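Troubleshooting log. The previous structure file for this entry was overwritten by mistake, so regenerating from the original sequence record. Sequence copied from the archived sheet and checked twice against the printout by T.R.
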Amino acid sequence: MQPPPTPAAAPLPPKSGLATASMVCGILSPITCGTTFLPAVILGHIALSQIGKTGGALEGRGQAKAGLWLGYGSFVLIFVGAFLAGLLTPLFIRSQQKAHEVAYLNNVRQIGTALVAFHQAQGTDTAPYPSDIRQLDPMGYTTNVSELLTVRKQHAGDWLYFWSADSEDPSAALLISPPLKSHAGDMDASSVLLTTSGAVRIVEPYVVDAALKASPEPPVKVPAPVR
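Regenerated output below.
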């Protein structure tokens, strides 16, 4: 007697193509920098809705949920990344600006020391300082004035050298840097000021204007080398 035939296995319900597409978009979302997170979410919700309406005639609920989790996760990562970038970028730019200001202050102090030394050794009442600041190098007061006058690209411009400044007036301007513009190109940017007393500080544009008006002779414009 032959055994009864084994009944054929019931065919598996088809999988939702939208669920598969949702999962694929979710997997690709980190690779595509989040450009596919929105399709993953939309397709995932549509797939779950279709699967629920068929009463089990379609499979793929797990894939649809995976696509949703991956899509929403990518959205959160993008949002957090954008928030942190928006928060930290201005701080980073400001820190760079501050570092540049400190470098310019230090360079101007070195130039100031050289100019004071020149005045004490060779200066006269009519010409207390060299008529050309670059004369400091061949005279042995500095090793490389051009390097000390070098500025960043966003600060490019002319240095103002007041060679005829009154050496007896400690507040008289002796050297003024190009405006220290920010990355946004601030037109009211401050400058580095060196006085005849050797003091160096950051000043606002109105101080520069006052120094120009108070100068007995127009300053020499020295083009700033740009790094």
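The chain has five helices and five strands. Archived copy saved in two places this time.
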